[in-house]
Amino acid sequence: MIDSPDNPETVPWDTDESSDKEEAQPTAAELEDAGQSAMFGDAPSVEPEEKAKPEPGKTQEPAPSDQPYRVLARKYRPQTFSELIGQEPMVQTLANAIARDRLAHAFLMTGVRGVGKTSTARLIAKALNCVGPDGEGGPTIDPCGQCEPCTAIAEGRHIDVIEMDAASHTGVDDVREIIEAVRYAAVSARYKIYIIDEVHMLSRNAFNALLKTLEEPPAHVKFLFATTEVDKLPVTVLSRTQRFDLRRIPAALLQSHFGKICGLENVEAEDEALAMIAGAAEGSVRDGLSILDQAIAHADLGGEGQVTAARVQDMLGLSDKSAQRKLLGHLLAGDAKAMLAAMDEQYALGVEPLALMRGQMDLVHRITVAQVSGGEADAPTSEERDALKDWAERLSPGQLHRLWQLLLKGHDEVRQAPDPLVSAQMAMLRALHANDFPDPGKLAKKLEHLAETGGAAPANSGAGEAAQGPSADLDWKQVVDSVQANGNHLAASIMMMQVRVVSLEEGSLRFSRDSRFQDDIAPQLRDALMGATGRRWVVEECQEEGEPTLLEREEAAQQHAMDELRKHPLVEATFAAFPDAEMVEEDTARPRGRNNWSKRA
């Protein structure tokens, strides 16, 4: 390039002042061409029509320099509503609205990343402005893709379809430009359409400035909003738009979609590899296509050109399915040494500890679902289905739920730990040891049974018990239960927690109480017993030592059961490994109230 002598930086070649210089001085490209002609002779002249003419029966492939590579997420962006996967309810609603001429003036598309929000907005713009191949068509849910509005919108150059990124245009001034422009009719389309992506990024003042226009826009204007964080939008904006919640795409549908794209790209891919990619996409088509792009490039490096499960697993740092099952098997078998060895092996292969924890959680979840449904487990291979089915039959629901909670807690710890591998090992060991603990539900039933059968030893024994204890044909607990059943809950509670039976016969009760009680409860007990049995009772409080109260018996039974549990070899081993551990008793089997004194020192 030859600079202008006057002002080489400010005087361009296309200004009037430099026109003479342009004619007098050749461009750099002309000089280069002239030099090449002098060295090699003139190039053969070829007419443009002759260059573009393909061979008969063949489609001319564009040169790599003419059409650079486009990533799959852009290359396979939906151009029609039929290509938009997983959003059938929204498409049906739009089709009905167009058919009945009941189009809203503002639409809001929400959903996670990569489910098609911006693509849907462009498709709506096409549907509203399509004129058909003959130029006579109207709004349609199936835009032709051939007319000038369709092609211009697809290429992003339509003058009446304005796309704005709210992340970089957040202020009132940006919105004011829209407010000023909506007054003018569309130049070459049926509707002037404003597509605002990530609309939640607009400032509060910008939203307020847009409200009036958004509520009563001109008939020729449509607003299309897209956002991933709909909860950040003011309710005043939400109430002025027709909202569509775009759903996450199911993994099975993503796998099928990726398989079709591999066919169009002439790429071979294993079903298990596509399933891994679909799972890693987490419902996002764009994320999945980006991973697929990477997997294809990774496969090409190997020379085979096939996307295999092993390569995808290595690329994503995922744990092998069989290795996941093997690890869970060691955990359930209580083999700590083998489990740690399997974890070290996976870590050496490049599997991240967080991915390892997610793999175990996924297995436990699928086992639980198979157990609840009673059907075949969700697995790509028969080997895995058989393993999941076997675990679903052998493990109890309580074990699975407890294991899930332990793994979930471990997952959170691994994510925040300075050394993820060490944290994962400790979390898995905790799950291994806790998996063999007695089931809390069974333990609670055992404690209830001991309490009902009077697991505590009586205060008096031998002849003294025969002389003073309740008679064999009359049980104090049954008497209290009859008072409870009669509806006198207060008296039943007092009898259970305070009364120490000295002697009990038909129509006669002698009892003692703790010295801390000074009130006279004999009349209250007399009325309660009469109401429950239909006969008068002689009730007398004395100072003699009586049987433990029903509450004291229950507490003694529970303490006895806890002592026995503490002597269990596995529990002793746990306390040896974790000296600071505590046995916590959840008292869920005692709905009756108790006075403040009942928690004895």
UniProtKB/TrEMBL annotation:
Xref: Gene3D superfamilies: 1.10.8.60, 1.20.272.10, P-loop containing nucleotide triphosphate hydrolases
Signal sequence range: none
GO cellular component: DNA polymerase III complex
InterPro entries: AAA+_ATPase (IPR003593), DNA_pol3_clamp-load_cplx_C (IPR008921), DNA_pol_III_gamma-3 (IPR022754), DNA_pol_III_gamma/tau_C (IPR022107), DNA_pol_III_sug/sutau_N (IPR012763), DNA_Rep/Repair_Clamp_Loader (IPR050238), HLD_clamp_pol_III_gamma_tau (IPR045085), P-loop_NTPase (IPR027417)
Segments of skewed composition (Basic residues): 591-601
Keyword Zinc listed: yes
Domain (AAA+ ATPase): residue spans on this chain: 103-250
Entry's EC annotation: 2.7.7.7
UniProt keywords, alphabetically: ATP-binding, DNA replication, DNA-directed DNA polymerase, Metal-binding, Nucleotide-binding, Nucleotidyltransferase, Transferase, Zinc
Pfam families named in the record: DNA_pol3_delta2, DNA_pol3_gamma3, DNAX_ATPase_lid, DUF3646
Keyword Phosphoprotein among UniProt keywords: no
Summary of subunit composition and partner proteins: DNA polymerase III contains a core (composed of alpha, epsilon and theta chains) that associates with a tau subunit. This core dimerizes to form the POLIII' complex. PolIII' associates with the gamma complex (composed of gamma, delta, delta', psi and chi chains) and with the beta chain to form the complete DNA polymerase III complex.
Protein's UniProt name: DNA polymerase III subunit gamma/tau
